[in-house]
Amino acid sequence: MDRVLSCTDNNAIHIEKEHLQCLGCACMSLSSRLNEVSPPSTDEFESMSDKACTIQEIYAMSLRVCTSLNFRLYTITSHHFCQRFLRACCLPTSNPVLDMMVQYLLQVSMLHYDLAVLTKPSLVTASALFLARVILGITNTNTTSLSCNNEKYWSKTLQYYTTYTIDDLKATVKLIYTMHQKADENKYTGAFQKYSDEKCYRVALKLMILEEDLDLALSSSNR
Description:
Blueprint: H1 2-5, H2 20-35, H3 42-48, H4 55-68, H5 82-87, H6 96-109, H7 113-118, H8 121-136, H9 156-162, H10 166-181, H11 190-194, H12 211-220
Helix pairs in contact: 2-4, 6-8, 6-10, 8-10
């Protein structure tokens, strides 16, 4: 829905205020078809809108959305790279705390325009993974995989699968670190509150690392 409303090229569509609910129904219908095994029917969306828009209007709006986006409905986000990059850590066992910490850092990074819009999603994920490893003290010396070398936080395996060197990560890591620092003071604290819960392993409450320690980690990873 945001992508459609932000279109500025020849495919941009003008939506009147009274048709926003219909646009929402159309976008939810398209999204559910892409992501759900059993998506809601168009009849159900008509019912959800309290018949503010008819089935035919939802179909028509769905076509306008598809045309506006050139049928490129699926958007790659930072979360799409999480599992692939986590597997490249070569940890002997799964680490749900690391997984949750990466998810948390990705959430807080979305509040920074450069990270959310201008930076490649894969770079944001790789940087969040590096910072999460530093925060949790997960180094490559803890692994048993022969594919990992003795670099402290960023191995050759991670560099291969992410395609990023430590120099590529530095600026983005610093931005995410800044957002992490003020996560509990930001105007939008939803992510901080969510990841302070026990079911999220309280990763938002983990001790903040000092900036000089982060600089040391970034430099020592090149040795």
